[in-house]
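Extended Data, panel c. Modelled sequence:
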Amino acid sequence: MTNAGQPPSIEERLSRLETLFANVGEAVLAQSANINAQSNTIDVLVANIQQLTENVAAVNQRVDALTTNVAEVTNRVDILATQAELDRAQAAQDRQQAAIDRQEFRNEIQRIWEYLLRQGGNGNTPI
């Protein structure tokens, strides 16, 4: 301790400096531990971000594959729709031709019937 008005002795000054350095050292150690904990937290966050990035990339690949599949399905549906339209048109033509064929067949049967009637029904000349 100092007398009133006298500067502190070198030992007192060194003691105070030692105490200050010890306090600073403890603060540095505490900050260092805090920095290490934050660094570990950052490492975990970086690992999580990397995993999320990989997950997003995988999802993007799946979306791309699904988009490709949808495009292929859409293309196949368009082809089937076109084929169905062609089939409907062909079926309409076939029905029309069948109606024509039936009418021609009926006309031919009518001609044969009339011929047979003129012949007397049994190939003899009518009476």
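Residues 10-118 form the longest helix (109 residues). This feature is highlighted in the accompanying rendering.
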